[in-house]
Amino acid sequence: MIKLTKILQEIGDSTAKPYPFQVKSSPDQESDYAKITTYGFESEHFPYTVWLATFEGGDEVDQMTVVFFVNYDVHPEGDTVVTNKGELYRVMATVSSIISAELRRRPNVDTLRFSPSKKQGDDTSRENLYLKYISQAYPNAEISREANGSRNDDIIVKFK
């Protein structure tokens, strides 16, 4: 008999309720080439930050780079710390909700970019988890990889 936890690990818990989140910086704070929005939320064990950098206009595609991590002031390995505190699906549901909210604010964005950190070596468990959530949320998206000069390739999600 297959255990329910095994099934959930394979498909992800798409019914998980997101944590409450809030905007931490001005949604339209601009750098030289991007609009950056910083969101924050807290799980039962850690505070998290989500950065969304939107690159718009010109010859570039309208894309959003997504980075999220445990706050560095709580844990110095913020984006690589292994949390495993039973909150994985709620954290992913929260990040997905934040991305969806930002995509509604920025309807011209047609591409997501992110680079899943690896716990060690060639581990792809985070990448696989993120791709499962993206496949559920955007079933018609085209997914590709792009080397970025580090040991973690960028994942590019192009909406059709």
Defining traits:
alpha+beta; globular; 160 residues; 24% helix
Whole-Å distance between the termini? Answer: 39 Å
Task: Identify the quaternary structure here.
Answer: single chain
CATH architecture: 3-Layer(aba) Sandwich
Rg over CA atoms, rounded to whole Å, is 16 Å
Uncertain ranges: 1-11
The SS-based structural class is alpha+beta
CATH class: Alpha Beta
Tell me what you see in this structure.
By secondary structure, the chain is of the alpha+beta class. It contains three helices and eight strands; from the N terminus they run αβββββαβαββ. It has a single domain, classed as Aminopeptidase. A hairpin with a 7-residue loop joins β7 and β8 (154-158). It is globular.
How do the helices and strands line up, and which of them pair or pack?
Elements: H1 4-11, E1 21-23, E2 29-30, E3 35-42, E4 47-55, E5 63-70, H2 88-105, E6 111-114, H3 125-137, E7 142-146, E8 154-158
Parallel strand pairs: 5-6
Antiparallel strand pairs: 1-3, 2-3, 3-4, 4-5, 6-8, 7-8
